[in-house]
Amino acid sequence: MADLEFFFDPVCPWAWITSRWVVEVQQQRNYDVAWRFISLKMINANRPDDEYTTPHRAAHMAGLYTHRVCDQVRLHHGNEAVGALYTALGIAFHNEQRRPQINEAPEAFMAEMLANAGLPTEYASHVDDASHDAYIEQDTELAFARTGRDVGTPIITFHPGAGERELRVL
Fold first, then answer.
1. Taking the CB of residue 155, how many other CB atoms lie within 10 A of it?
2. Do 23 and 67 form a contact (C-beta atoms < 8 A)?
3. Do 7 and 139 contact (CB within 8 A), yes or no?
4. Roughly how many angstroms between the first and final C-alpha of the chain, as a whole number?
5. pLDDT tens-digit profile of 115-150?
6. Which of 15, 17, 55, 157 has the fewest CB atoms within 10 Å of its CB?
7. Cα gap 7→156, rounded to integer Å
8. Torsion on CA atoms 10, 169, 1, 9, rounded to nearest 10
9. Which stretch of DSSP H or E encloses residue 69?
């Protein structure tokens, strides 16, 4: 069981900043981190058009593309590989300001990110594979089950396998 679960959407800058702190703590304390999904696209799907702008929709779609590929990586390479792909994505999206590129050519962008993470580039074809959406939605709902729905990303759960008294959520 992981010491903490980190629910992220790769497009969220707050999740990215917090994840770098979590990685630093992970290295210093030898924590086991489970990288989990929370989809801004799914959270905001029913917002009215006047509140959900075109740029937000594009950014959140970018997050869904990445989650689908991250889920394929999870299925075939496990949690550490998801963390490696999230790091590659975070550097590109947030440090290098390349997020708009994924919407221009999702599969090509993800192939590059997979290569940067040392993973098979053919997984990039999963950007449009909606069969991953049920798992992504399940993770999103698990995060909200722990916090309520009126929060954003990231959501961090400490000692997720502990009883309710021991569960800590940020």
1. 22
2. no
3. yes
4. 18
5. 999 999 999 999 999 999 999 999 999 999 888 777
6. 55
7. 6
8. -10
9. helix 54-77
Q: How do residues 67-124 score in pLDDT, each as one tens digit?
A: 999 999 999 999 999 999 999 999 999 999 999 999 999 999 999 999 999 999 999 9
- For residues 110 and 65, give the distance between their C-alpha atoms in angstroms, rounded to a whole number: 8
Cβ 5 vs Cβ 160: under 8 Å: yes
Q: Of 39, 60, 18, which is closest to residue 142 (Cα–Cα)?
A: 39
**Do residues 6 and 154 touch, judged by C-beta distance below 8 A?**
yes
Cis preceding linkage at 154, omega within 30: yes
